[in-house]
Amino acid sequence: FDPRHYLGTHCYSFPKTGPHRLRFLLESVKDLRETLKKKGSTLVVRKGKPEDVVCELLTQLGSVTAVVFHEEVREIL
């Protein structure tokens, strides 16, 4: 979870993620973790800036051959 997603937006300081969306995200992550557990896998959940958290995970895991991600599209006003 990137803490920047819970701050106000650049325009008018509206929250990017309100309480209802946060609840939905938490429930979705919980459900995904339970589904993966039933299949013999797991889900790693971290809080922090992705650029920091991913580097820490790669260091901890050691033998990673690939990392895949997507970048949020930002609207230009």
TrEMBL record:
<dbReference type="GO" id="GO:0000719">
    <property type="term" value="P:photoreactive repair"/>
</dbReference>
<keyword id="KW-0157">Chromophore</keyword>
<dbReference type="GO" id="GO:0003904">
    <property type="term" value="F:deoxyribodipyrimidine photo-lyase activity"/>
</dbReference>
<dbReference type="InterPro" id="IPR002081">
    <property type="entry name" value="Cryptochrome/DNA_photolyase_1"/>
</dbReference>
<dbReference type="GO" id="GO:0071949">
    <property type="term" value="F:FAD binding"/>
</dbReference>
<dbReference type="Pfam" id="PF00875">
    <property type="entry name" value="DNA_photolyase"/>
</dbReference>
<dbReference type="GO" id="GO:0003684">
    <property type="term" value="F:damaged DNA binding"/>
</dbReference>
<dbReference type="InterPro" id="IPR036155">
    <property type="entry name" value="Crypto/Photolyase_N_sf"/>
</dbReference>
<dbReference type="InterPro" id="IPR014729">
    <property type="entry name" value="Rossmann-like_a/b/a_fold"/>
</dbReference>
<feature type="domain" description="Photolyase/cryptochrome alpha/beta">
    <location>
        <begin position="1"/>
        <end position="77"/>
    </location>
</feature>
<dbReference type="InterPro" id="IPR006050">
    <property type="entry name" value="DNA_photolyase_N"/>
</dbReference>
<protein>
    <submittedName>
        <fullName>CRYD protein</fullName>
    </submittedName>
</protein>
